[in-house]
Amino acid sequence: MTLLEIPWNVNPIIAKLGSFELRWYGLLFASGFLLGYQIMLNVFRKEHKSEKDLDTLLFVMIIATVIGARFGHYFFYEFDSFLKNPGEFLIDMITPPYQGLASHGALVGIITALVIYARSHKDQPFLWVADRIVITVALAGFFIRMGNLMNHEIVGKATNVPWAFRFNAFSQTPTGDLIMTPEPFARHPAQLYEALSCLILFVILYSIWNKFKEKTPRGLLLGIFLIWVFGLRFCYEFLKENQEAFEDKMALNMGQILSIPAVLLGIGVLIYTFKNKQNQEAA
């Protein structure tokens, strides 16, 4: 036992009414979208875009995030099981409680959805809307990782650092009540590391946009987002337990492998941004 470890005894269930459970994860997940909507409303007003488009954009983001993240989880982490019974997994993919979400799948889903959205909104090109959406996605990342913390999931490896968290293992009684049993050792609070990184990124991205608004170079915020989130994700994975057993035999786990192309894409976007900016200044 470490001298200053933090016992993490938070119950993931806030309240229960019959079979219905109100969980911290669901509340935090929804909070990310609600606050994100308010941020985008502010962006649309200051850049003189139609506020009516926000309802469509919110719907697109919710669908793309959930389906992309769920499909990504099955495709990257449970592909063999998915192939054995695809119908069951397709139903599970779109129904709550959405256990198993892959951020890399969400990225693919969001990018695809924004390309489609931008084609039908000519005053909002892809890079324009992507630059502003990533501000809200960074904030949503903070809430989602805090939800993971509340759920005692996506835990870090065992450690004796003073800020180590002692998480709980869960079992259920015949009546469905949770029994929380402290683990025998403390771990890195990897969820908290990622949550704080997302919160810092949100402040950075929003500050850049707030300074330049419509003059923000196209692709700048998207490039920073991709490099920051997935570059740090690659590093944090060294401190986290693997999500699936097959990753134990790999030099780099699935999260790290998938983060590499995301970082390279971010670098490519920034190169395009700065070249485009130089061409505009030379014109």
Structure, described:
- The protein has 283 residues and is mainly α.
- The chain has helices spanning 24-46, 53-77, 79-84, 86-94, 103-119, 126-150, 190-212, 220-236, 254-282; strands at 6-7, 13-17, 20-23, 165-166, 168-172, 178-182.
- The protein has one domain.
- It is 61% helix and 8% strand.
- The strands form 3 sheets. It has a two-stranded parallel sheet. A two-stranded antiparallel ribbon has the order 2-3.
- The longest helix has 29 residues, at 254-282.
- The mean pLDDT is 88.
- Pathway: Protein modification; lipoprotein biosynthesis (diacylglyceryl transfer).
- Its main location: membrane.
- Helix coverage percent: 55-70%
Summing up helix and strand content along with how strands pair, one would put the structural category as: mainly alpha
| Count of DSSP H/I helices | 9
The largest β sheet comes out as:
2 strands, parallel
User: Please, what is the average pLDDT?
Assistant: 88
Query: Per DSSP, what share of the residues sits in E-state strands of 2 or more residues?
Result: 5-15%
Uncertain stretches of 5 or more adjacent residues: none
Order of helices and strands: EEEHHHHHHEEEHHH
Number of domains: 1
Annotation, overall tally of beta strands: 6
Strand order of the largest sheet: 1-4
Q: Rg to the nearest angstrom?
A: 20 Å
In whole angstroms, how far apart are the ends? 65 Å
Shape: globular
